């Protein structure tokens, strides 16, 4: 066992406290396994778990009390609730626990209390998985032992016991709701767009939750073009007075004298705002037909040298440069690492080229903004496959890019009708009963030079277990065409 993890219960604030783990998905099971390794007693609750899953987990659940209903009476008998990210804090029993002053936290908060090496923290509506995996690649190229974890890869309590010089932490808004102890070397909110509005009051509430990543950060990295990523002392006047579900004011994310703040994005916007007078910014500027990545006034590299295409990926590279700046790595090593990253599966991933038609899997495009960026990155007329669980999104935001680029729209899933209602006057709309039907329809409609793009702008759970399963199914159907 790693010696840094001795006295875990004491260091995590769990000594002599009754602990309830809420939710038995991937996260809850990782918490249970961690507690077993460190001889920390707990009980479990999952109101949705099936009898079949309980039976399948017999070994993991051995000798642990499992409750099948989350209610006020159960919660009242515990001091600490470890809540899985898929369990909304708005549930009445959890709100009752918060009101009673009980410690309501997540595996990420436990990680934050225990971690003893530097952490880089990344959140945002889109691009966070790409940025985290990209940072891990850059650091590995630089001979820095780094591990990506959190909302990507392994749960954080599993990697905590692996040897690493630095952790690169991807954080969803759900994981940020109860976070208060993390002290990242650098942290970013890459962007904020409509997502998960079925869980938050509105986009401002969602943005406030994202900005919790800035608490205690040594360096804050924010997007010059997106005011909702900017600490409140640098943004336009906005009311952030509401107290979030974890009981802390959103003003906790404001920058103060203890924070450094760096901006990334369009260089003209940075120059106009005079942000280089505050700190060195990271900008993107078009020169001689190509975009260049800048630190301050110094050009670093052409965006065309990146394997990942699209202006949004060049901006992701800028964010990475800013996040890595506290490590003071040599430029040539960092830039080389940026150049060799090939991207993630299910993120505008080229599956095949068949009879001059390019087929792209962007199943991870689970919200409207991600879909827009995927369409914008295509250099061809687009046949778009979209649909699923819309999470109360505003699909009318797709109108400009659909009008400019999309020639056919193929819809699947529960909220296909909502997407059609928003876009039917701009594009030819087709409905498909499943993924095979969608791919067959796209094959019939596509001509050489087109791009067929699966970018659903929706979650997958109406038809698939995950976005990965959805993307794999799409790729399998495309490859069947080429067989």
Describe the model:
- The protein has 483 residues and is of the alpha/beta class.
- It folds into 3 domains: 14-104, NAD(P)-binding Rossmann-like Domain (Rossmann fold); 110-340, Mur-like, catalytic domain (UDP-N-acetylmuramoyl-L-alanine:D-glutamate ligase, 3-Layer(aba) Sandwich); 349-482, Protein-Tyrosine Phosphatase, Chain A (Alpha-Beta Complex).
- It is 33% helix and 19% strand.
- It has 19 helices and 20 strands.
- It has helices at 8-11, 26-37, 51-56, 58-61, 72-76, 92-99, 107-114, 128-141, 156-159, 173-176, 203-210, 267-273, 311-324, 331-340, 368-377, 399-405, 416-423, 435-445, 467-482, and strands spanning 19-22, 43-45, 66-67, 80-83, 103-105, 119-123, 146-150, 166-170, 186-189, 219-223, 260-266, 282-287, 290-295, 298-302, 349-354, 357-361, 382-386, 406-411, 428-431, 451-454.
- Strands 7-8-6-9-10-11-12-13-14 form a 9-stranded mixed sheet. Strands 15-16-20-17-18-19 form a 6-stranded mixed sheet, sandwiched between helices. The chain has a 5-stranded parallel sheet with strand order 3-2-1-4-5, sandwiched between helices.
- Helix 8 (128-141) packs across helix 14.
- It starts with 7 loop residues before the first helix and ends with a helix.
- Mean pLDDT is 91; it is low at 1-5 and 234-258.
């Amino acid at each position: 066992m790693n010696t840094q993890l001795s006295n875990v219960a004491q260091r995590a604030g769990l000594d002599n406290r009754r602990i309830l783990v809420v939710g038995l998905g991937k996260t809850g099971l990782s918490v249970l396994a961690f507690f077993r390794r460190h001889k920390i007693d707990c009980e479990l609750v999952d109101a949705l778990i099936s009898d079949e899953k309980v039976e399948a987990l017999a070994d993991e659940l051995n000798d642990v009390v499992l409750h099948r209903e989350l209610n006020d009476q159960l919660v009242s008998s515990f001091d600490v609730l470890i809540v899985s990210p898929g369990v909304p804090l708005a549930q009445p029993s959890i709100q009752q626990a918060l009101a009673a002053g009980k410690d309501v936290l997540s595996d990420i908060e436990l990680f934050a209390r225990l971690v003893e090496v530097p952490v880089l923290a990344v959140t945002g509506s889109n691009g966070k998985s790409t940025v985290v995996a990209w940072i891990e690649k850059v650091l590995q190229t630089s001979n820095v032992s780094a591990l990506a974890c959190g909302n990507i890869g392994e749960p954080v309590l599993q990697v905590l016991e692996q040897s690493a010089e630095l952790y690169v932490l991807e954080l969803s808004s759900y994981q940020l709701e109860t976070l208060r102890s993390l002290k990242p070397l650098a942290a970013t909110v890459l962007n904020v767009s409509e997502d998960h509005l079925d869980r938050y009051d509105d986009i401002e509430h969602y943005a406030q939750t994202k900005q919790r990543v800035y608490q205690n950060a040594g360096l804050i990295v924010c997007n010059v073009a997106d005011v909702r990523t900017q600490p409140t002392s640098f943004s336009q006047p906005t009311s952030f007075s509401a107290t979030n579900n974890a009981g802390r004011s959103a003003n906790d994310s404001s920058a103060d004298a203890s924070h450094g703040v760096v901006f990334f994005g369009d260089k003209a916007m940075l120059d106009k705002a005079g942000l280089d007078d505050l700190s060195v910014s990271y900008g993107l500027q078009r020169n001689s037909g190509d975009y260049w990545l800048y630190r301050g006034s110094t050009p670093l590299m052409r965006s065309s040298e990146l394997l990942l295409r699209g202006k949004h990926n060049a901006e992701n590279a800028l964010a990475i440069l800013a996040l890595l700046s506290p490590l003071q790595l040599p430029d040539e090593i960092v830039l080389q690492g940026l150049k060799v990253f090939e991207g993630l599966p299910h993120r505008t991933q080229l599956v095949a080229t068949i009879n001059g038609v390019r087929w792209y899997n962007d199943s991870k495009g689970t919200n409207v903004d991600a879909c827009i960026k995927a369409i914008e990155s295509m250099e061809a007329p687009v046949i778009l496959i979209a649909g699923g669980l819309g999470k109360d999104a505003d699909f009318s935001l797709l109108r400009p890019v659909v009008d400019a680029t999309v020639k056919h729209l193929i819809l699947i899933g529960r909220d296909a009708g909502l997407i059609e209602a928003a876009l039917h006057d701009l594009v030819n709309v087709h409905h498909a009963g499943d993924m095979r039907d969608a791919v067959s329809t796209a094959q019939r409609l596509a001509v050489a030079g087109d791009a067929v793009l699966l970018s659903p702008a929706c979650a997958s759970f109406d038809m698939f277990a995950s976005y990965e399963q959805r993307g794999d199914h799409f790729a399998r159907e495309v490859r069947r065409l080429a067989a």
